[in-house]
Design goal:
The complex is a heterodimer. By secondary structure, chain A is α/β, with parallel strands linked by helices. Chain A contains six helices and 21 strands. Chain A has one domain (5-367). Chain A has a ten-stranded mixed β-sheet, covered by helices on one side. In chain A, strands 5-6-8-10-12-14-16-18-20 form a nine-stranded mixed β-sheet, covered by helices on one side. A two-stranded parallel ribbon of chain A has the order 1-2. Chain B starts with a strand and ends in a 6-residue tail after the last helix. In chain B, helix 6 links the parallel strand 9 (165-169) and strand 10. Chain B has a single domain, classed as P-loop containing nucleotide triphosphate hydrolases (Rossmann fold). Chain B is globular and about 55 Å long. Chain B has helices at 40-48, 71-76, 94-108, 116-129, 147-161, 177-190, 205-209, 230-238; strands at 2-11, 14-24, 29-33, 54-61, 64-65, 79-82, 89-93, 140-141, 165-169, 196-200, 214-219, 222-227. Chain B has a six-stranded mixed β-sheet, sandwiched between helices. In chain B, strands 2-1-4-5 form a four-stranded antiparallel β-sheet, with helices on one face. Classes of the chains: A alpha/beta, B alpha/beta. Chains A and B meet through helix 4 and helix 5 of A and helix 2, strand 7 and helix 3 of B.
Chain lengths: 414, 244
């Protein structure tokens, strides 16, 4: 291990002895192998150990929770919100809803050790997590407005690591649009390691939208583990352009019949930005659907990665699974890696995957220029057209307009 | 307006235009006819600034050396090319494209850019004149449009950008009689003492609707004959091979 750390459980306040012991156990296990590097198959295209060695010195976990600016809610877009600083819940507002239908509290830290660790980052999260939120929606309650989770940060995060965990539980027949909204205007390079546990009961529906709203030197890792019961629906939209490093892992378990899961991603990567989306969809039951469409535009020296796995159990007959990744590569130094995987044990399924990458259509650029549009603008129009496609299926008009604006800002490089 | 002198154009080491001379004055309509492979589309491409051509000779547009202007600057200064094969551009909404185009041109001309509402009002009017269904405007640019719809869309763009000089490259091909009439009416209603046109076509048909002042015959990269509107009818009967 080249990297030196200064991780300390003692710095975390109000821990019971039991909790301290559990956390120390996780930390000891983490120390055995450190941050994952490219020798670990899952991290083959994102050598985290190497990246951190290059960009960090003596990573530590002591932090305060003072936000570096006042909360500014999104204008002209009605929503509820949860306000987090460095991952910890500061305040909530559910003014558009029936309050008795929504249960919100700090994440129970003792739950942290109940999951089999996915990787050493989860061990680290178990050891150092400072909280997060735990949200539950009561049976059959459909939220009237989206819920925005504002992620703000404090000053002085250089070389710090933030660990938090959230849980989102939708009871039978409930519905939620959740927007995870990252806002950072510091120039600090820090690490954020987040685990979200999502569980959807029968007929529940969750739209989970990840938005980065500013350019940021942060190095982000997010692991979303979700489990779906019968006829529930889980949709993900990833619009996280702007982060220096970002890896999002989504593991979805389709546990009962007629569930559906979709993952849409639209990324515009510039400079030396590096983003990876890794998915694993487990079809554990018959008649479930999964759909993935991953679109990347890569310029400068940026790197995009998509590792997508569809796993179909023997019992999961009539599975309908699809994945597609498309990359538009604008520079000779940019890179896109795709690793699609299908592992199928059932014999009556519809599974397909595809991956394409190419450069921008020069005839299209020419056509637009003959209409008076300067080259830079013409290319932007084409990029926008390429990425915007992932928003096509959104039926909620206000949400669609909002996301189109977010995407446009990201294409303009903020 | 446009003065071309001894224009030579080479692509992939093949000389296509071999010393072409042409002068078009304000308000004039010129037609260029000629057999396949004579260089008609190359002329249109060269005037619009398409990359890949090696160019010799002089092209003067409104006192400017055209070769000094970038592709988008040509459009901004008032040159418009209606494409023979308008491109389908997936993902790009027609209205957004038209607004971006118009505002780029207006900005370059020092005019105020139009806001969305004003633009939509204007584009609806223009679309109506050309009998274009409004719903096409909210679709992806030319994607799934029929040949006729694509060509009408080109004329719509012409009328929107208000160029001084328009090149119509085989705009009549793929049009049925009704669409041909609408396109021709669109051009005729835009024609005035200031605006000039260069119409590239294989057939007399379009010239029955848009009356040219001059017809040129292009053959093997050179204009070999120039005449008035009657030349088209004569060509229809005799073909190109009998021209001396």
């Amino acid at each position: 291990m080249n990297q030196s750390y200064d991780f300390s459980i003692e710095k975390i306040k109000n821990l019971s002895l039991k909790e301290k012991i559990l956390r120390q156990k996780n930390l000891d296990l983490f120390y055995e192998s450190g941050f994952p590097d490219k020798r670990v198959e899952d991290w083959k295209f994102t050598d985290l150990s190497l990246i951190l060695n290059k960009n960090f010195e003596n990573i530590s976990n002591d932090i305060n929770f003072e936000p570096n600016k006042e909360l500014e809610t999104i204008k002209n877009f009605e929503h509820n919100y949860i306000f987090l600083t460095n991952g910890k819940m500061i305040s909530t507002n559910f003014e558009h809803e029936e309050k008795s239908k929504i249960l919100i509290k700090d994440y129970n830290r003792l739950e942290t050790t109940n999951i089999d660790p996915l990787n050493t980052l989860e061990l680290l999260n178990n050891a150092l997590s400072l909280g997060g939120f735990s949200l539950e929606i009561i049976k059959n309650y459909k939220l009237k407005k989206p819920l925005v989770v504002y992620n703000y940060f404090s000053v002085g995060l250089k070389n710090k690591i933030l660990n938090n965990k959230n849980s989102i539980k939708l009871n039978e027949g409930s519905e939620l649009i959740l927007i995870d909204y990252n806002e950072d205007n510091t120039q600090d390079n820090f690490i954020k390691n987040t685990i979200d546990i999502v569980s959807l009961d029968k007929n529940a529906s969750l739209k989970n939208i990840l938005i980065q709203n500013s350019k940021c030197n942060g190095h982000f890792y997010k692991y979303i583990k979700s489990s779906l019961e019968g006829s529930s629906s889980y949709e993900n939209y990833i619009l996280s352009s702007g982060l220096k490093l970002n890896k999002i892992e989504i593991e979805t378990n389709l546990n009962k019949d007629n569930c559906s899961c979709s993952i849409y991603s639209a990324l515009n990567l510039l400079e030396d930005q590096h983003q990876e989306i890794k998915t694993r969809i487990n079809h554990n039951s018959p008649n479930c659907k999964s759909y993935q469409k991953i679109k990347n535009v890569l310029d400068d020296k940026s790197k995009g990665v998509y590792q997508g796995k569809i796993f179909v159990e023997k019992v999961a007959q009539k599975t309908d699974a699809y994945q597609l990744s498309k990359a538009l590569i604008l520079s000779d130094e940019a890179e896109f890696d795709a690793k699609p995987e299908l592992e199928i044990y059932a014999d009556d399924v519809k599974c397909s995957h595809g991956s394409t990458s190419g450069s921008i259509d020069s005839d299209a650029v020419h056509y637009l220029m003959t209409r008076g549009i300067p080259k830079k603008e013409a290319v932007k129009l084409l990029i926008n057209g390429f990425l915007n496609e992932v928003l096509e299926t959104i039926a909620n008009k206000d949400l669609k307009i909002f996301l189109e604006k977010v995407l446009e800002r990201q294409i303009n490089g903020y | 307006m446009l003065k071309i002198k001894n224009l030579k154009a080479t692509i992939n080491e093949k000389l296509i235009l071999k010393g072409l001379d042409l002068e078009i004055k304000p308000g004039e309509v010129h037609a260029i006819m000629g057999p396949n492979g004579s260089g008609k589309s190359t002329l249109a491409n060269v005037l619009s600034g398409k990359n890949g051509y090696e160019i010799e000779g002089e092209i003067n547009f409104d006192g400017m050396n055209l070769n000094d202007l970038k592709i988008e600057e040509r459009a901004q200064k008032g040159i418009f090319l209606a494409f023979q094969y308008p491109l389908e551009i997936p993902g790009v909404n027609t209205n957004i494209f038209l607004k971006t185009s118009l505002n780029s041109v207006r900005k370059a001309r020092g005019e105020k850019e139009l806001d969305t509402l004003t633009f939509l009002k204007l584009i609806k009017e223009k679309a109506k004149e050309l009998n274009i269904d409004e719903k096409f405007l909210s679709r992806q640019l030319n994607v799934g449009f029929s040949g006729g719809e694509k060509k009408k869309n080109e004329i719509l763009q012409m009328k929107l950008l208000e160029p001084k000089f328009s090149i119509l490259d085989e705009t009549d091909s793929g049009l049925d009689i009704d669409a041909l009439r609408i396109v021709a009416d669109g051009v005729n209603s835009y024609k005035n003492k200031e605006n000039s046109f260069l119409i590239i076509t294989h057939y007399q048909r379009l010239l029955d609707y848009i009356k040219p002042d001059y017809i040129h015959v292009l053959s093997a990269g050179k204009i070999i004959k120039t005449g008035n509107a009657d030349l088209g009818k004569q060509l229809e009967e005799t073909g190109y091979t009998n021209l001396s």
